[in-house]
Amino acid sequence: MRNSAPIPKLPPIALPSLKLSIVIVSFNTRDTLRHCLQLAKVELLRIARLGLTSEILVVDNASTDGSAEMVEQFFPDLRLIRSSVNLGFGGANNLALLASRGELLLLLNSDAFLESPILDRLLASMDRDESIGILGISQISRDGSPQPSARRFHTLWRDACMMTGLAEFFPNSPLWAALFGGLDRKWHGVCHPVPVDWIPGAFMLIRRTLLEDVSLFDPALFLYVEEVDLCKRAHRNGWTVVYLPEYSVLHIGGESAGSINAALDSPPSHQVVLWRMRSTLLYYRKWHGIQAWGAAVLEIALYRLRWLRNRWSRSPQRRTRARHALQLIALMRQAWRDTRGGRVSPPQPW
Question: Could you tell me the pTM of the whole model?
Fold first, then answer.
């Protein structure tokens, strides 16, 4: 894959180091960002009493809703970095990571809330095992339901099982999960660290020396799969990615992620789906070569089957699904053209 820029390296700390840097990227999330910062500051004040030093860095990704002004007004002691353009998830995090001073680095979404005192225990977990490069915890919705938090790397088979629903037929069967499991790894009654392939970037605790070793986020990936790519490089260099289900963070943004493909009647929804498809092709081409073609064919074939199944139905809902399937086919074909089959990242911002 040809990148628009090389992956930046994280230099060793030149300034006096802190124990923890929290990095939060915001794009038009003023209200949730304010709540996120309020809870994060409470937690940092608590760990300060334990002798743990910390900082918070906020990157405003060219917001137009007054997010940056809100931070300046209500949180003047935080480090605010303004970007004149939307750099996406990875690019914006890279800005803050390069300016950070923490030995450990916590990537926290602006819609993820630290509602319980957990940071000191997570930091202690990293201190006990220096082989852990990245640590994640359970992410939950407002109703208490779990979100995908411990994940496996993409393969064509796993993607197919997920997209067809095969992975969810018998969710509590280890044998079924072994044969037809999708991207999610489900752990029931586990309260100890478990090695996994990758964890979502809404809450990702990273050891600084890992980023010095494997570099920062790939700037070619504007949105989606940036954390998958980072974890892939971490595994390749011998680091361990660990999921710790004993602790949890409230993540409200993940509640709607699964419904994006079901709401395709607006340009913003089209744009988000197109971003996901572009990133999928870029990721497959980078790590699996010609399988990028297989990823595109897989999605188009499944959407075509969905269209055939629903196109003649008298049900308005099923006819809408048929129409959406055609839209998804068109978007995947556009993503293929935009990325030249996953070889080139389109000019950013996407």
Answer: 0.92
